Amino acid sequence: MPGWPELEGPVLDVAPRLLGATLRHGDVAVRLTEVEAYDGPDDPGSHAYRGRTRRNAVMFGPSGVLYVYFTYGMHHCANVVVGPVDRPSAVLLRAGEVVDGLASARARRRGSDRDLARGPARLCQALGIDLSHDGTDLSRGDLTLTLTDSPGGDVSAGPRVGLRQAAERPWRFWLTGEPTVSTYRPAAPLRRRPG
DNA sequence: GTTGCGATGCGCT
DNA sequence: GCGCATCGCAACA
Fold it and tell me: From the CB of residue A51, how many other CB atoms can be counted at a distance below 10 Å?
């Protein structure tokens, strides 16, 4: 199947081009301000690094599809699938600015407007995205991605957030100076519980 | 602004 | 069983 031509290139090229794009679900729209690249077969930090499983299956499909996963027992995170079929790459949507449907987004989340979609799980919450949206084609329907020619600002790059594997790769991209970009927190070593 | 830590359930070894 | 592409809250600066 065709996929989405603008998203077919290498993930490191495509990821920064998603900055400034708009993800809309129903009446809520978010302008993306921070994203992170995952390059399946060569990336120890990627869900697809160890091959295809039930969870990561949509990463192996056509570009322009949403990959949603559930983590920490309570949070959802959303990615845009990128690259050709069988190259399981994706771009994690880390943060954005709510540009439409503010009332609906506020109803789903507590906190300041700036924080509504600041962080990958918050972004999903503000947009009402969950596992039922895994595999959704973003080119049509109720959940859509609209690309932009210009991100609307300078792009910065730096280390990925929250990973223990290959976090040092500078594969996180954000719009310089945007207040909605999530605060950087490196992955912490796990402490073993006593007993 | 920062750091520390518990919540909570599923995917994977 | 272990670990997680996280968050919110408390405490501190």
Answer: 10
